[in-house]
Write a structure and sequence with these properties.
This protein is an alpha+beta fold and 81 residues long. Helices cover 22% and strands 17% of the residues. It has a single domain, classed as 60s Ribosomal Protein L30, Chain: A (2-Layer Sandwich). A hairpin with a 2-residue loop joins strand 3 and strand 4. The longest helix has 14 residues.
């Protein structure tokens, strides 16, 4: 590493916790992605897209549940979805 380069810190890394949808996710999006990908559509910060197909509007999302095991007492991943 060159002496004029900043040594990476914990703040320079994307962690598994950034994917939880909580405060760390919000901070990462606000501090990095909004600046890099700024445009009128993404600036709304929607977590879905509205598609118009044959005059009908549909909302589409890629949100998902990650549950292990997929069957558990009182439910299953299908019921959560």
């Amino acid at each position: 590493m060159k002496t004029d380069q900043k040594k990476p810190s914990a703040d320079d890394r994307i962690l598994l916790a950034h994917g939880s949808g909580g405060a760390m996710s919000h901070d990462l999006i606000a501090s990095l992605f909004i600046k890099a990908f700024q445009n009128p559509v993404l600036d709304r910060l929607d977590d879905m897209a509205v598609l118009e197909i044959g005059g009908t509007k549909l909302a589409f999302t890629t949100d998902s549940y990650v549950v292990t095991p997929i069957f558990f007492p009182g439910g299953d991943i299908g019921k959560l979805g």
